[in-house]
């Protein structure tokens, strides 16, 4: 650059490399800013590398050790990896927990969010609800699990698990999925609230202004508009549910198989009984666990990873579809 | 403001707001108290054929907590005419407009005194959802619902949240609402088009169609053209004038030219007071109030 700032027109650039576009140069940046930018780049790349390493490592290990038979055969007692069967009960267990947990967390969470955003009265009650949800979000899952044992071993709730001579066992799919739902609830509430809050006030009023009630507006306008965020909340919640270990260890049982309650009708016998999940299986099969079958731990972890990636892809799809509908200008 | 009054500073001519740069007419020498330097395009509308009194605003005051937003306003609202509410920002136009279909009640702090009557019935006695189908509203920002053009209208036609009535059965009504809002020709080939992907002007006409689908007696418009380009604005202005025989139209606008072009009566509000209610030609060309003269001359606001 020439030293003069304003007056002379800039000299014509050399023919060889005519710039097609003027860009902001970092030459004017201070050293701190430049270092900061470099640091951000470094961190970004570092985290990409870590994530890629985990996925690739699990992918390789998973493909190496995962056999389809493992998804269809239950775990069995045995001394070698060959004799000890697969982890079908854990796989199905995770599916059951996911379905049960989210089908409790989603409707309740959406209802709470609608009440908080659209009604929120009396104020004091709304504030307390908000604080409670935040508190639940902050409670470690092992504490929730412990709390769950207190609830589900009470005689009144004996019908949700196995009871023996008046002693309630307290471990069952019902018990575990309820506490898992509680764990997922804050995610659903937060995401739904965000979705509802993003809808401008005048859109609600436009619906009221053609004689619609609050209920009709919520059902036909607000909830459909917030669908992507509700879906995100559901996916996040589901991810939390299938990824949790503490609640499953404490409230579902340490066995690697289903143990249905005798005498109960079909689905209930399994749901009232103890069981396992993929996370529990990975924990037990890892080198430090009781089973010590690291190859199967990798295989199960790989399945878990695939499920989480599928969830992310599904969330993405919902958002992409929502973008086709468009949004208000501000 | 005071210095502009002729008795205190007779030599100072009122500021001139000229929109037509070709107009060579100089400012008048001696300005009578009520004359204005308002220069507008020709009024594009004929005098109303008839006018029927539909609503009656009677000494209405509206407070937000301790703050008075509207102070003792009385106005008639007539079918066959367009009524424009004008005035500087924050003078209570929106507040007054929203009170006409009880939307102000959604603001917890708002308190209304006085009475508003629709066909001689106090609107407080009319169930709000029924009232809001008889007095519908279009907002400043185009706000179609995030669904198809067809569904936007169908939603209004159906009972509350129900989806029982089939689309086929609603088709004639949807088409006629779109046609009344002058949108049908543009969208008829694809009524499934997402409403939020229409242009701003089309969106606003869809909102008008939506408001008309309820078959209202009164149509409220709060600065409906403020987010639109001049061409879309002209289309909507034509539409509003055409609607005045079927519904009583009340429009809030900051665009004095617009008020002059399309309104039959104009109400000028200032700090919550109704300063002057008059026919458009009178209010803009020979207002009875000093404040009106100043405002329409562009002295403030
Ligand atoms: N929800 C509210 N709560 C408290 N005060 C309000 C509320 N809405 C409006 N006001 C006050 O009432 C007064 C009138 O507001 P209003 O929106 O009716 O003005 P307006 O004439 O429509 O203004 P503009 O031309 O800028 O739209 C303003 O002083 C405003 O601050
Ligand atoms: Mg306003």
Low-confidence stretches of chain A: none
Could you say which structural class the secondary elements and strand pairing of chain A correspond to?
Answer: mainly alpha
The largest sheet of chain A, given as strand count, sense and whether it forms a barrel, is:
2 strands, antiparallel
Q: What would you call the quaternary organization? A: heterodimer
Along the chain, the helix and strand elements of chain A come as HHHHHEEHHHHHHHH
Distance between the termini of chain A: 42 Å
How many DSSP-defined strands of chain A?
2
Please report which band the strand proportion of chain B falls in: under 5%, 5-15%, 15-25%, 25-35%, 35-45% or over 45%.
Answer: 15-25%
CATH topology-level fold name of one domain in chain A: MetI-like fold
Cα-based radius of gyration of chain A, to the nearest Å: 27 Å
Helix residue percentage of chain A: 55-70%
- The proportion of residues in beta strands of chain A is under 5%
- Classified by CATH, the class of one domain in chain A is Mainly Alpha
CATH architecture of one domain in chain A: Orthogonal Bundle
Order of helix and strand elements from N to C terminus of chain B: EEEHEEHEHHHHEHEHEEHH
Task: Order the strands across the largest sheet of chain A as they lie in space.
Answer: 1-2
Biggest pleated-sheet summary of chain B: 6 strands, mixed
What ligands can be seen in this structure? adenosine-5'-triphosphate, magnesium ion
